[in-house]
């Protein structure tokens, strides 16, 4: 997956890149964010347009981990809550929420480790000067 963004900040060799919302997201309206930011290592100047690559398989795996693992926590917590508190729906709900929170915390820890793995790092594959015409400008 390659996304095009603009460098908005540079600190040593760490670039803060701003990406606009993808075309597929324009009609959805589910989120109010019009742009997203990411910090990646690279060599560019503020205002430059960069192409950032992340292998498609990694994007799919990250999505699976981010969404599926907390869902497993919810279902597991509800199952455990039902076994421990058969006639108390409020406690079952709390157990489900606790399972979600616990496994979401595990996902956050896993994410911290993945950020240090080279195969999971986005990388800058192309840099265009900020005043060069792009497909984003009309």
| Strand residue percentage | 25-35%
Overall average pLDDT: 78
- Strands across the major sheet, in which order? 3-2-1-4-5
> Using DSSP, what is the number of strands?
5
The count of helical stretches stands at 3
Count up the domains.
2
**Poorly predicted ranges:** none
What is the ordering of alpha helices and beta strands? Answer: EEHEEHHE
> How does the major sheet shape up?
5 strands, antiparallel
Cα Rg = 20 Å
Under the CATH scheme, which architecture of the largest domain would be assigned? Beta Barrel
- Assign the structural class, choosing from mainly alpha, mainly beta, alpha/beta, alpha+beta, or little secondary structure: alpha+beta
Shape by Cα distribution: elongated
What percent of the residues sit in helical stretches (DSSP H or I)? 40-55%
| Cα separation of the termini | 24 Å
CATH class of the largest domain: Mainly Beta
CATH topology of the largest domain: OB fold (Dihydrolipoamide Acetyltransferase, E2P)
What features would you describe in this structure?
The chain has three helices and five strands. With 138 residues, it is of the alpha+beta class. It folds into two domains: 1-54 and 122-138, OB fold (Dihydrolipoamide Acetyltransferase, E2P); 56-120. Strands 3-2-1-4-5 form a five-stranded antiparallel beta sheet, with no helix packed on it.
